[in-house]
Design goal:
Order of helices and strands: EEEHHEEHHEEEEEEHHEHEHHHEHHHH
Largest sheet: 4 strands, antiparallel
Distance between the termini: 98 Å
Number of strands: 14
Structural class: alpha+beta
Strand content: 15-25%
Number of helices: 14
Shape: flat
Mean pLDDT: 77
Low-confidence stretches: 16-21, 25-33
Helix content: 40-55%
Radius of gyration: 33 Å
Strand order of the largest sheet: 3-8-9-10
C-alpha cells in the first residue's frame, strides 16, 4: 500500500495480540477541559496571531547540517541528503517554509508533530512528510520500551516504526504523547472566543440601550406570545448598528425607559478583551509589542528580537534541532548535527553592523570577503579578500617576546644617552 506515493507496511487486523497492546492516548494523568478544535482555536484572534508569529519565525530561519572537524572546527555537511531536505524541499509536495510552518502549527495547537520519513536503501532520509496528529496513535507492546505508530487515513491503516516516523512532542507530563501550550490553558482561549461572540452580539444584533417597555393595563389580553412578537418587532426595527440613530416609536399607551444597567464601557468590555489577549500571549510567550499592543518595554528593535528569540523561539528551535539530528544515519550521527542560524533574526541596523565589522576585521576575526558574504556583496580577489589582518603592536606575552621587548627598549635608551 502507498502513502504519499510511497510504499509502506499496512497494518493487519491484529498486528499484536490485543491483550499485549498498550495505547498511549493521553499525555499522562493531567486533566484539562475537552480540547477545542483547530477551527475554534484559530477563531481566537490572539491564538491565531501568536501561532502565526512563532511558526513563521521558525519557518524562515535557515537550518543547516554541520559536520565536526578534527581540528575542533566545523563545516557544512552538504553531502548529506538531509541538508537539502531542510534547506530546499522536504518532499515533492511542499517547499521548506510551508513544511516547517506546518509542523510548528501541529506542535502549537496539537502538541505533537508526526513526520513520515522516507529512507533510501542506505538509511538516508530522502523525503519528509507531515502527518495529521489526530490521525496517529502511539502504541507499544507490553513489556517492551519501544513504541510504534499507527496512522489512519482514507486509504487504510498503517503501522510505522520509529525509523520511518519521527515524533516530536511539545510539552509532556508522563507519557510519550505531548500536550500543546494552549491545552494546559483551555479557559483563556475559550474566554477570548466568548468575548468575541459577546461583542458581536452587542454591536450587531441588539439595541444599544437596555430598555424596559411598559404595556398599559388596558391590554388585558396581552399574552407571552404577544410579548415575544413585540420583542422581535423592536429588535427588527431598532437592532443592529444600521438603526443606531433611528427614533424610537411605540404604539399608543406604551412607554419605554432605559434600565440602570452598565453599557459596554461600564462593563469594561475593552478591558476584558485586552485581558484575554494578554493571557493567551503569556501562554505562547509572545511579547505584547508583537501583537500591536502599545506597552512595549524595549526601545531597540534588535533587543526586542533578541528577547523574542531567547525566551520564545529558542526552546522550540532546540527541540527541532535535537529531533532533526536524530534523522542522520547512526554512523554519521556522532559527527553531524542540525542547527538553526539564529543570527538571521538579530540583523542590526547598518551603523551597528558596520561598527561590528570594523572591530572584528581589525582584530583578525573576519576577512573582507566574510563581510561581503554577510552583506550579499560580490567577493574580491582572494589574495586580499581572504586574508586576515591583525594589529602589529600586539604580541604574545611569552618570556622570549618580553626579553626582546626589553632589549629593544634598552637599545632605544642607549641611543638617547649618546645623543
Amino acid at each position: 500500500m502507498r502513502i504519499f506515493g510511497l510504499e509502506i507496511r499496512r497494518a493487519s487486523k491484529s498486528p499484536v495480540p490485543i491483550g499485549q497492546l498498550t495505547t498511549e492516548f493521553s499525555a499522562g494523568s493531567l486533566s484539562y477541559f475537552p480540547a477545542m478544535t483547530v477551527s475554534e482555536l484559530m477563531a481566537n484572534a490572539t491564538v491565531n496571531a501568536c501561532t502565526g508569529i512563532i511558526s513563521d519565525a521558525v519557518a524562515v530561519l535557515p537550518a543547516r547540517v554541520y559536520r565536526r572537524k578534527k581540528d575542533g572546527g566545523r563545516e557544512i555537511a552538504s553531502d548529506l541528503p538531509l541538508y537539502d531536505l531542510l534547506r530546499l524541499r522536504p518532499n515533492p509536495l511542499q517547499q521548506n517554509i510551508t513544511f516547517r510552518a506546518q509542523i510548528m502549527l501541529h506542535l502549537l495547537l496539537k502538541g505533537n508533530s508526526f513526520i513520515f520519513v522516507d529512507r533510501d536503501s542506505g538509511g538516508q532520509p530522502q523525503g519528509l512528510y507531515a502527518l495529521r496528529p489526530e490521525k496517529v496513535d502511539i502504541l507499544k507492546e507490553k513489556g517492551k520500551n519501544s513504541y510504534f505508530y499507527r496512522y489512519y487515513d482514507e486509504s487504510g491503516t498503517y503501522d510505522l516504526t520509529a525509523d520511518n516516523c519521527l515524533h516530536i512532542p511539545a510539552m509532556t507530563w508522563s507519557g510519550p504523547r505531548g500536550l500543546s501550550p494552549i491545552e494546559y490553558s483551555y479557559q483563556s482561549a475559550s474566554l477570548g472566543n466568548t468575548m468575541d461572540k459577546y461583542t458581536a452580539r452587542s454591536f450587531d444584533g441588539g439595541i444599544h440601550s437596555k430598555l424596559k417597555v411598559t404595556v398599559p393595563m388596558s391590554e388585558k389580553n396581552f399574552t407571552q406570545e404577544d410579548a415575544k412578537k413585540l420583542k422581535e418587532r423592536l429588535l427588527n426595527a431598532y437592532g443592529g448598528p444600521e438603526h443606531a440613530g433611528d427614533p424610537f416609536i411605540l404604539t399608543q399607551g406604551m412607554t419605554a425607559d432605559a434600565l440602570n444597567m452598565p453599557d459596554n464601557n461600564g462593563s469594561q468590555l475593552v478591558e476584558n478583551r485586552t485581558y484575554s489577549a494578554k493571557e493567551v500571549a503569556k501562554i505562547f510567550r509572545v511579547p505584547l509589542s508583537m501583537l500591536g499592543e502599545s506597552d512595549a518595554k524595549y526601545n531597540n528593535n534588535e533587543q526586542q528580537a533578541r528577547n523574542f528569540l531567547q525566551y520564545t523561539l529558542n526552546p522550540w528551535l532546540c527541540r527541532l534541532e535535537q529531533y532533526f539530528s536524530a534523522l542522520i544515519p547512526i554512523y554519521e550521527r556522532g559527527d553531524c548535527y542540525v542547527e538553526f542560524d539564529r543570527n538571521a533574526m538579530l540583523q542590526a541596523d547598518s551603523q551597528i553592523r558596520i561598527e561590528n565589522y570594523v572591530k572584528e576585521f581589525s582584530n583578525g576575526q573576519i576577512t573582507l570577503n566574510d563581510i561581503n558574504r554577510m552583506e550579499n556583496r560580490p567577493l574580491i580577489d582572494p589574495k586580499i579578500g581572504d586574508i586576515r589582518f591583525a594589529p602589529v603592536n600586539l604580541a604574545p606575552l611569552t618570556p622570549e617576546y618580553v626579553d626582546a621587548y626589553m632589549a629593544n627598549q634598552k637599545q632605544i635608551a642607549k641611543g638617547r644617552q649618546e645623543e
